[in-house]
Design brief:
Strands 2-3-4-1-5 form a five-stranded parallel β-sheet. The chain is of the alpha/beta class. The protein has helices at residues 3-6, 8-19, 22-31, 34-48, 51-59, 63-97, 102-107, 117-122, 124-146, 157-163, 180-191, 215-223, 226-231, 246-257, 268-279, 296-303, 322-327, 340-352, 364-373, 378-387, 394-402, 415-424, 428-436, 448-457, 467-481, and strands at 203-208, 234-241, 284-291, 314-319, 333-334. It folds into four domains: 3-163; 180-334, Rossmann fold, CATH 3.40.50.300; 340-413; 426-481, no CATH class. α18 packs parallel to α20 (378-387). The two termini are 25 Å apart.
Length: 482
């Protein structure tokens, strides 16, 4: 799957910014093309409103939508090239009317000065190019309607139907490797005694790391450990995911801690009161798995029933987002990738049903190369191993090794939805900069300073010129590297 098509929404935002720029608007009014550009902007907005649905249907294997996205991608690039030509002509016009601008003029290609401004816009080639793009844009709008693409909403309902994973349970993974140090550290945080008063706000322990790193698996191991069961009076597990529904989460926790209580049809006030009564003066552990909420108000509402628990009560939060830890006012526990040896153990368990390659030595080198591509992500290891489960044909192993992770069959691929969810939750400025990286070839080693220069040149970094904009780029690099 072409990554550039998956991130078209971010690229269109770049076009919107350029179409709204003061320099382009002034140039367009002077040359009499402002009405046409306004029409293009409105058409692109209508296209942007259905991109979430289009991207979801593409991921689900819709060939018609995939072709539509490719056509849109090509046109978007051509429109950007045309806007570049306008920018050059606008700069040329400015240099001709302002004194002392010979330096600016010298930086522009000589071919841009062959025509006067009015002759430029009436040049047959330029007019033909604009008419051709206008026709292509109209065709894309028509095809959009034929495909019945739906406008996106705040909750991305189309995405949820296609990509949302099953809710996790508190049951542990059958093969849990090389997290004993992390497990012991979390256990220590859970069972350490506190010298606070009897009734306190529970301590929050956020386990933070990128998707597929094994945060949930670690929480499951801790949750089911006998030492935890002996230490806490009450335990509850709730999978939150990207929809932070306070009522649904509260109901799940209450039903887990009190299975005899019927919560059907009850409002939040009733649920909160019952949960507070049930947890009062008890030492409890609650796990909130896969949290994305960045709204402090929503977090404080969810926390209301937990304020009367006994000292030592804890809440574990698994999340990919450090902002979630900040909202909870807690110090994050950052999970790192698995070691190569641990990944090999996990891979052989899911691929061969064994702990090593003793019975299949001819597959070991291929297995090591496949595992190396997973870069320490347990989810990636399990997904690729699952595709090879009890398949001992070296040719099939070689095919998996040579395939691109984005091209794996969707029904066999848990990695893409996990990565896409992470992408969707990036702030808009980060999403645009991240999407820009799709232009680099596979396995290309991107230099930090080079990338920031490109971001600045493409107008992707907000802020003033010079050092301030460079610092913005450095900050975004650091955030994307977390």
């Amino acid at each position: 799957m072409p990554i550039a098509e998956l991130f078209l929404s971010a690229f269109l935002q770049v076009l919107f910014d350029r179409l709204a720029s003061r320099e382009l608007l002034s140039f367009a009014r002077r040359e009499g093309i402002d009405v046409l550009l306004k029409k293009w902007e409105e058409m692109l907005v209508s296209i942007n409103q259905v991109l979430d649905d289009a991207e979801d249907r593409q991921l689900n294997g819709d060939g018609g939508v995939n072709s539509w996205l490719k056509t849109l991608r090509d046109l978007a690039y051509d429109i950007e090239d045309l806007l570049d030509e306008f920018a050059i002509e606008s700069a040329k016009n400015k240099s001709e009317v302002e004194p002392g601008t010979s330096k600016v003029r010298s930086l522009l290609p000589s071919c841009c000065f062959r025509l006067s401004p009015s002759a430029f816009m009436f040049d047959r080639k330029m007019r033909s190019k604009m008419e051709e793009m206008d026709g292509r844009l109209n065709d894309i709008i028509t095809q959009k309607n034929i495909l019945h693409l739906r406008e996106n909403n705040e909750k991305r309902s189309a995405y949820r139907q296609v990509d949302k994973p099953f809710h996790t349970t508190n049951l542990p993974e059958p093969c849990f490797v090389s997290r004993e140090v992390e497990k012991m550290e979390i256990l220590e945080l859970l069972t350490e005694e506190e010298n606070d008063r009897a009734c306190v706000d529970p301590k929050v322990i956020p386990i933070v790391g990128m998707g597929g790193l094994g945060k949930t698996a670690l929480a499951q191991q801790v949750y089911n450990d006998d030492r935890v069961s002996d230490y806490f009076d009450v335990k509850a597990w709730a999978c939150v995911s990207d929809d932070f529904d306070v009522l649904a989460i509260t109901k799940k926790i209450l039903e887990t801690t009190n299975g005899h209580l019927s919560c059907e049809g009850k409002d939040l006030d009733w649920l909160h009161e019952k949960l507070k009564e049930h947890l009062a003066r008890k030492k409890f552990l609650v796990v909130l798995d896969d949290v994305w909420n960045e709204n402090y108000g929503n977090w404080t509402i969810l926390m209301k029933p937990f304020q009367l628990g006994a000292k030592g009560s804890k809440i574990i939060v698994t999340t990919r987002n450090f902002r979630v830890a900040e909202i909870a006012r807690a110090r994050p526990y950052t999970l790192k990738p698995l070691s190569q040896d641990a990944c090999m153990t996990l891979f052989t368990f899911h691929a061969l049903g064994a702990r090593n390659f003793d019975h299949h030595p001819d597959l070991e080198v291929l297995g090591m190369k496949i595992v190396d591509k997973c870069r320490g992500l347990p989810l990636a290891v399990k997904t690729l191993a699952g595709l090879l489960s009890f398949n001992f044909n070296p040719h099939d192993w070689k095919a998996i090794l040579d395939s691109k992770i984005w091209d794996l069959p969707k029904e066999s691929n848990d990695i893409l939805p996990a990565l896409k969810l992470s992408y969707l939750h990036l702030p808009s400025n980060l999403r645009r900069c991240f999407a820009y990286c799709a232009i680099f070839p596979k396995d290309y080693e991107i230099e930090r300073d080079e990338l920031i220069h490109w971001w600045i040149a493409e107008g992707l970094l907000e802020g003033k010129e010079g050092k301030n904009r460079w610092n913005v780029g450095l900050k975004l690099i650091n955030e994307l590297s977390i």
